[in-house]
Design a protein that fits this description.
By secondary structure, this protein is mainly alpha-helical. The protein contains 9 helices and no strands. It has a single domain (31-217), classed as CDP-alcohol phosphotransferase transmembrane (TM) domain (Four Helix Bundle (Hemerythrin (Met), subunit A)).
Amino acid sequence: MNESKIKKIENKVTVRLNKVLTLSIFDEPRPKYVSKITLTDKFFAATILKLVPFGVRPNFLTVFRFVSIPFVAFLLVTGDYVNGFWLFTVAALSDALDGAMARTRNQITDWGIVFDPVADKLLVGIVALIVISKAINPILAGTIIVLEIALVISAYWRFRGKLIPAKIVGKLKMILQCVGISLLLIGLAVNYPLIISAATIILYASVIFSVLCLTVYKSI
């Protein structure tokens, strides 16, 4: 093997290693769908995000979501559904805010693209394991968790190691999951079966959207 070929191989290895170390999954410029601003983004930018200083980065909210997960889990395990509801709601809202902030303020990072959906799935998965399996049934909880894992593996495999941002169907799935879980926590807190029944229907609907994400729309 001549020296020029060795140099080319070394350069390729160096580039790939740098991408791994910096979590750089997209070449510049990034695909347009990564930075496309939605109507929801515009709504948050015109309302809640006006109260958030520019020094607060989207990744801070993603880290907050990771940090909040054990506290949410503790509250739910101990049966404190009221405080568990509030903390879960704030954590779930941070998911919408960090994406809107990243796109409207041009603060998109590869770290956020990778770990934002991971934080979402951990949050939903932990709550499903603790609450849905207890209050509704373990089969629904297991189905939600398995589908979330399958979505991540499928997206990673399909795009050759590149985790992609959620598309509209994936976002609708996440909204249904969060609304269903929030209603379930409220129903448990006030011991009102009708609210629990409504939450159950919404969570089953989220499963349908998860299947659509996995089989039809190819999103996470």
